[in-house]
Amino acid sequence: MFRFPTVFFGSVFAACLLLFIGLTDRTNDGASPNVLSFDVDIPSLLHNNKKKSISPKTEEDAPKVITWNRNNSTDKFCVWFNFTKATKESDFRSISLCTHGSIGYSKFVFDHAENWDDRISVALLVDSAGFTTLKTYLKLHKCMENTTEKVSTHLVWKPENETCSSSFILDALEEPLNATDFIDNCNVDDHIDAGLFNHSTTDLYYPNTLRNVAREGAGTELHLIADIENHFSFNASEILLEATKDVDKKSKIAVVVRRFEYNTSFDEPRTVKELYDLCRMHEAYQFHRFFYAIGHSVPGLPHWFRYSLNASTTPTLFSINYRSSIWEPQLIVHASAPYHFEGFSMKRDQCALPYELCRAGYSFTVASHAFSFHKGIKINSSSKYSLFEIAKIARKIGNVFRQYLDAEYGIETIKTCKKW
Ligand SMILES: *[C@@H]1O[C@H](CO)[C@@H](O)[C@H](O)[C@H]1NC(C)=O
Ligand SMILES: *[C@@H]1O[C@H](CO)[C@@H](O)[C@H](O)[C@H]1NC(C)=O
Ligand SMILES: *[C@@H]1O[C@H](CO)[C@@H](O)[C@H](O)[C@H]1NC(C)=O
Ligand SMILES: *[C@@H]1O[C@H](CO)[C@@H](O)[C@H](O)[C@H]1NC(C)=O
Ligand SMILES: *[C@@H]1O[C@H](CO)[C@@H](O)[C@H](O)[C@H]1NC(C)=O
Ligand SMILES: *[C@@H]1O[C@H](CO)[C@@H](O)[C@H](O)[C@H]1NC(C)=O
Ligand SMILES: *[C@@H]1O[C@H](CO)[C@@H](O)[C@H](O)[C@H]1NC(C)=O
Ligand SMILES: *[C@@H]1O[C@H](CO)[C@@H](O)[C@H](O)[C@H]1NC(C)=O
Ligand SMILES: *[C@@H]1O[C@H](CO)[C@@H](O)[C@H](O)[C@H]1NC(C)=O
Ligand SMILES: *[C@@H]1O[C@H](CO)[C@@H](O)[C@H](O)[C@H]1NC(C)=O
Ligand SMILES: *[C@@H]1O[C@H](CO)[C@@H](O)[C@H](O)[C@H]1NC(C)=O
User: 105 alpha carbon to ligand 3 midpoint, in Å?
Assistant: First the structure.
């Protein structure tokens, strides 16, 4: 299913990569016959293509590398927007699946591209140990049509010094790829099995920065903010677009997309019926049912099933109440809605947006007919990070967040939303 004709790979790979990076003129992409083989890597493509024209011709062609530092967060990042840019035109009125991860998690993008039939905007955190994985991701991104068409990739990294420069990425991409790392096909699983996505870092991760980068780079009117390990049900993008037809700048509606987890000894549930059957067998549950239900449970599940399973109903939104400041539902919001407050690490990061939306007077709804699932039922918490350190960060940034909210939305709104 993932395989693509070699000719396709070669021409798209050569033409698109250079077009995206904006390094060269587009009429002469130097696609010599050897480019059509898989034994070609990004650096050699760069070399083959007249490095002398490295200065971009127009503003628009210039790599958009900026320094990113919001909400006085102690962390600064460099961001290269649209490092890969979705080739397929898309309506402004569409839903971008905005997701994020450190570079090793980029393997999940390919499943999204097959199942989410709309834009995908992904922010990937790269460090110097992650370049082999980045090259692998870029290779697969180019050789799968769905991914090339839909996925815009924004690279995020910590500045080595005070400046943010595209050379951090470009220099690394020019390093030759270790031949033993190179697999002569476009099969994602083969690359995963070979360990090419085995990248991990013990640096603290700042999810809200990555979420916001993905939203900023989306370029569509609606944003579905999702964790990268989620998988979406069949036709989710079309269903959700229909359900959210009344969500606009004025309406101040946040839309919850239900999340589930299931026992991987069973087939993955891509339809509501399959999900329902697994839930009845106690092999699927609302996300983090055993581990952190309070953060994820969304009221009205029996009614949601009844409605969504009924063949004569159409996608719609059900009103629900905001739950609490530790509630972290998966949301679709309008592009004009607030972004996640930055500076949190892996604790209380995700609930910052729902809480701010409550303070800002948004109402909450749940979309029928579509959902996402996580592979595996999580029983225990595990973290490679220091829980003490991330709790300390959450307390510290929480104080800043509170002051910001009180100034922005007034303290009266605490009555409805409770305290942070
Ligand atoms: C960021 O710092 C500036 C200057 O110190 C201050 O005016 C502003 O309120 C701070 N913003 C936040 C979100 O704390
Ligand atoms: C914090 O960041 C959000 C999202 O970028 C932005 O909307 C908001 O204005 C910022 N607030 C402050 C005080 O910096
Ligand atoms: C691309 O996605 C569509 C559904 O959106 C699917 O039917 C098709 O098989 C996918 N193509 C590939 C090459 O995966
Ligand atoms: C900062 O990085 C730039 C670009 O990589 C480099 O030219 C410059 O020498 C560096 N400065 C310091 C102080 O390391
Ligand atoms: C390529 O990888 C192999 C196995 O990890 C290693 O032994 C070899 O030294 C690497 N070669 C280069 C040029 O990095
Ligand atoms: C990659 O990681 C997986 C899971 O942690 C491990 O089983 C596998 O041996 C690793 N592969 C390589 C080549 O390091
Ligand atoms: C990225 O590309 C999209 C179109 O695909 C565009 O709407 C958006 O403005 C671009 N983002 C940035 C930050 O350049
Ligand atoms: C998805 O949409 C297609 C085309 O509209 C339809 O044929 C198919 O039955 C739908 N699948 C599900 C699970 O809703
Ligand atoms: C998943 O299903 C298998 C097979 O029925 C069972 O042995 C296992 O305990 C289940 N796992 C969980 C987490 O429920
Ligand atoms: C299915 O929906 C239709 C239309 O809303 C309704 O009339 C019917 O009672 C529903 N059927 C069931 C079994 O809920
Ligand atoms: C889960 O945590 C409990 C208590 O911390 C421990 O006894 C148990 O062995 C853990 N289970 C797994 C599957 O890690």
Answer: 21
